[in-house]
Amino acid sequence: AQSVSQHNHHVILSEAASLELGCNYSYGGTVNLFWYVQYPGQHLQLLLKYFSGDPLVKGIKGFEAEFIKSKFSFNLRKPSVQWSDTAEYFCAVNLYQGGKLIFGQGTELSVKP
Amino acid sequence: EAGVAQSPRYKIIEKRQSVAFWCNPISGHATLYWYQQILGQGPKLLIQFQNNGVVDDSQLPKDRFSAERLKGVDSTLKIQPAKLEDSAVYLCASSLAAAHGGYTFGSGTRLTVV
Question: I need a surface site. Which of A58, A95, B17, B32 has the fewest CB within 10 A?
Answer without folding.
Answer: A58
